[in-house]
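SAMPLE LOG
Freezer: B-3
Tube label: C17
Construct: single chain, 127 aa
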Amino acid sequence: MKTLKISTDNEISIIDVDFDDFRSIQKALGGHFETVHTAKMGNYFQGPVIMLVDEDGYFKNLPLNRFGSWMYDMPRHGSPILGDVILAEACYEDIVAVQKPEKLMEKLMDDFEFLKKVKEIRHEHEN
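STRUCTURE (predicted):
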């Protein structure tokens, strides 16, 4: 399932993640993950978009994710988002890919000028 990944290098790309297999998500993020949703995200996306982030980013000393920290509303919550971020949608108890990732990528690149597009699609669930 195609979705968006935003790296700590401010690179945005469309990746293929099997959301039915938690190992595919772990491979895309480099470890155990947690879901993040804030009022700021709800206002921006106007939908059920969530971020999947490395839950051990602080302990791994991962670099700051500028986009993720903005979406997390870092000044309000007091902690930055460290490591790469995958966007997904919450659908009841399931996590699914974002709708229309190409269109969402265009919007994010228009709104966040520091994001740089990565051209190729990465298949995160392949070995």
